[in-house]
Amino acid sequence: MSVASMPIKIPSSPLPSVKVVVVNTTVVVATDIA
């Protein structure tokens, strides 16, 4: 959960954190399908 709290500490660059969340979600979904 420490990784999820990092983007909150860095409001100047929220885009990278959003990309990480999207990638993680995609990987989880792909893993569930597989």
Uncertain stretches: none
Order of helices and strands: HH
Task: Give the total of domains.
Answer: 1
Strand percent estimate? under 5%
Task: Explain this structure.
With 34 residues, the protein is mainly alpha-helical. It has one domain (2-33). It is 82% helix and 0% strand. It has helices at residues 2-9, 14-33. It is rod-shaped, with a radius of gyration of 12 Å. The termini are far apart.
Question: Summed up, what is this model?
Answer:
With 34 residues, the chain is mostly helical. It has helices at residues 2-9, 14-33.
What order do the helices and strands come in, and which of them pair?
Layout: H1 2-9, H2 14-33
What keywords describe this structure?
mainly alpha
